[in-house]
Amino acid sequence: MDEDAVAGRSPRQDLAASAGPYAIAHADLLADDPPRSRPGPGAAVPALGIPALIVGGYAAATLLWPLDAVAPTVLPALVAAPAATAAQPAWPADGAGATAVEGLGATAASSTDPASIASITKLVTALVVLDEQPLGVGEQGPEYAFTAADRRDYRAYLADDQSALDVPVDGVLTQYQLLQGVLIGSANNYADRLVSELWPNDEVYARAANTWLAEHGLDGITVVDPSGIDSDNTADPASVIALGRAAMSNPVVAEIVGQRSVDLPGAGLVENTNALLANPEVVGIKTGSLFGSFNLVAAQDATFDGTTVRAYAVALGQPDDDTRHSATAALLERTLAEVAASPSLSAGTLAGTVTTAWGAAADIVTDADVRVALWNAQAAQATPEIELGDARAAGDAVGELVLTGPLGSATTTLKLASDIPDPDAWWRLSHPLQLWGLAD
Which of 149, 235, 380, 433 supports an S-S bond with 439, CB 3.0-4.6 Å? Predict the structure, then answer.
């Protein structure tokens, strides 16, 4: 019998009144509750989308981030600059010689012994006179009068087998004209006249001349008279080269010794005793001869790769006039040929290396051959000046290399020998701190 039915009680009322810890759920109660919905597939999207956005953002940031913080590193290389070989001068068969190139190291000489220099002494005379009584280029200086007595003296010089020029009786010669007669015609009487106007005698002059030589570092030269007629006017070959340089550094002397001829009052047309002036590259300077011994010091200019080079040569103690000229010319020719053979720094010479944090590398090399004038073991200096900038492709210009020598410099472009590739995706993804400049 159903007691609930007899008592007229509802099962839900009994459920509420139940004093036990658990309530008994009847089937009809479960049937009365509405069904609950199960989560659909879209409910997982918010949970999965956030990590995907993070990963995507990281990938985009690393793959697209500029490479400013990881710019390539440039390492300049130590470039071995070229050097000239030791000089091999064409020494004369007789006597002694020396040769040099202005600004290119020491003089090469076949002997260190002093020898008579004869009328080369007149270079000292001209320099000492101009030191005592200077002339500017284009100036004539004071005038000196000549009389019949001076002409008689001229004839006496000739009778003594000395080199001399006639004078303008009752006329004048300027200081510049007298210097022309001394240096072009090698006139002993003109040299003596100039010196007599400034010093009381040859002994006083000789002291002044030797003091001047010492003050100018020309200790290897000894002077006893203005003309060079005394065999005790001596110098070693290298010192004659030094004297030649000093003479050519004086603009008035340099102008005169380069003149092939001059028309002088009294003397007429005077031909230069230096026959090498027939070569337009020869710019001076002076002959000398005494007692069958012939001397010549000469200077010659030549141009190599846009640089003017001046070579000097001297031949002392030659047997005749022709030989002194040919011996001196041979010395000049060989010396200038050696300068012309100056070694080059070759195209493709390594000047630096570019490296990157991701392992890529490229060499920096010279674009073309480059050289400077060198002689007698002189070396150049190579200085690479690298500016990589945004250059990354093979052949891109990345600066220049300056090759410097004693007489000037030359330049060639520096270029990349190969491409510098960007980092790949994996390197970017795996090195974020370096990309962003947060780590080295």
Answer: 433
Write out pLDDT tens, residues 222-272.
Answer: 999 999 999 999 999 999 999 999 999 999 999 999 999 999 999 999 999
CA atoms within 13 A on the CB side of 349: 26
Going by the DSSP 8-state scheme, the letter that residue 268 receives in this structure is E
The CA–CA distances, whole Å, from 238 to 109, 210, 314 equal 6, 17, 8
Span 25-57, pLDDT tens digits: 444 544 455 555 555 555 555 667 888 788 777
Condensed to tens digits (0 to 9), the pLDDT of residues 318-341 reads: 999 999 999 999 999 999 999 999
User: How confident is the model at residue 64, as a pLDDT?
Assistant: 65
Rounded to whole angstroms, how far apart are CA atoms 343 and 371? 6
Which residues belong to the annotated binding site for substrate?
286
Q: Which residue has the tokens 């300027």?
A: 174
Question: Environment class of residue 355 by beta-carbon count within 10 Å: exposed (0-12), middle (13-18) or buried (19+)?
Answer: middle
Catalytic annotation present for 37: no
pTM, two decimal places:
0.81
pLDDT value for 72: 92
Residue with tokens 């007298």: 178
Chain Cα centroid distance, residue 176: 38
Closest CA to 133 of 125, 141, 123: 141
What residues are designated binding site?
Answer: 286
What's the rounded Cα separation, in Å, for the pair 221 and 234?
Answer: 6
Other beta carbons within 10 angstroms of residue 387's beta carbon come to 11
Instruction: Considering the candidates 110, 116, 163, 186, report the single residue annotated as catalytic.
Output: 186
Nearest to 416 by CA among 367, 368, 360, 364: 364
- Is 186 an annotated catalytic residue? yes
Q: Tell me the C-alpha distance between 47 and 41, whole Å.
A: 12
Catalytic member of 122, 227, 293, 342? 122
Q: What pLDDT does residue 275 have? A: 98
> What pLDDT score does 22 carry?
40
- On whether the CB atoms of residues 362 and 417 are closer than 8 A, the answer is yes
- Would you list the DSSP string of 44-113? GHHHHHHHHHHHHHHHHHHHH--SGGGPPEEEE------BPPPP-----SSSEEEEEETTSSPPEES--S
Sequence-distant (≥ 6) Cβ neighbours of residue 47 within 8 angstroms: none
